[in-house]
């Protein structure tokens, strides 16, 4: 691969919800390009979490009008208000251990929570939703989601997000095989991601062309 794109998200983040169409289109557009796409959990903490349903609805109205959405997100999932929402995020992460590395589990959880208002803070419900989306056994997915190993991975990917020294989710990290790197924090639109990706792919291809003509650099 010439380029790797990592999408950092929290399943309960409304801006991640709005970024999903751009992520899907990016993967579709570059399906045949030398690009690897992956996603990782970056847990929201208390500082970035709505403190009440009323506050969440204010944020949903703001993001909904900015994105031009014909519907408003549903704050019903946010009861009770917790300092972080492990259940939905760990269920999405746990599905990877069953070979489900695509987007369907976390998308089903986002839809259930932020569109339908289902209580995805509940482990059993999140596992049921995720299992149905992935065609897995609910009990097995729930056990894996609640395991120490999955939580450790979620904590590690959250730490990797913070190591970028950014604060906003979604965050996209583009890294090329020639050492170029671009970080987008809080971006949900497709166009800037495409522009950066095109530029990085072009430079990586140019390096490949140069090497084909001239080989490796002379030793020092």
């Amino acid at each position: 691969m010439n380029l790797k794109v990592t999408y950092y998200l929290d399943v309960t983040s409304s801006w991640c919800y709005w970024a999903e169409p751009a992520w899907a289109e990016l993967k579709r557009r570059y399906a045949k390009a030398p690009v690897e796409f992956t996603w990782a959990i970056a847990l929201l903490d208390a500082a970035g979490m709505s403190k009440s349903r009323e506050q969440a609805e204010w944020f949903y109205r703001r993001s909904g009008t900015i994105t031009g959405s014909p519907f408003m997100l549903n704050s019903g999932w946010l009861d009770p208000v917790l300092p972080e929402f492990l259940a939905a995020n760990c269920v999405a992460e746990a599905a990877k251990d069953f070979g489900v590395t695509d987007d369907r589990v976390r998308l089903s959880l986002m839809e259930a929570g932020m569109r339908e208002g289902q209580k995805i803070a509940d482990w059993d419900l999140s596992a049921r939703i995720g299992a149905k989306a992935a065609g897995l056994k609910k009990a097995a997915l729930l056990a894996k989601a609640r395991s120490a190993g999955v939580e450790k991975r979620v904590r590690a990917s959250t730490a990797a997000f913070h190591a970028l020294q950014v604060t906003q989710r979604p965050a996209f990290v583009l890294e090329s095989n020639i050492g170029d790197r671009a970080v987008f924090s809080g971006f949900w639109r497709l166009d800037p991601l495409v522009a950066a990706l095109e530029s990085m792919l072009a430079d990586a291809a140019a390096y490949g062309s140069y090497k084909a003509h001239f080989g490796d650099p002379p030793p020092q």
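Residues 190-214 form the longest helix (25 residues). The helical segments are 14-29, 53-67, 86-94, 104-115, 123-134, 138-145, 148-163, 190-214.
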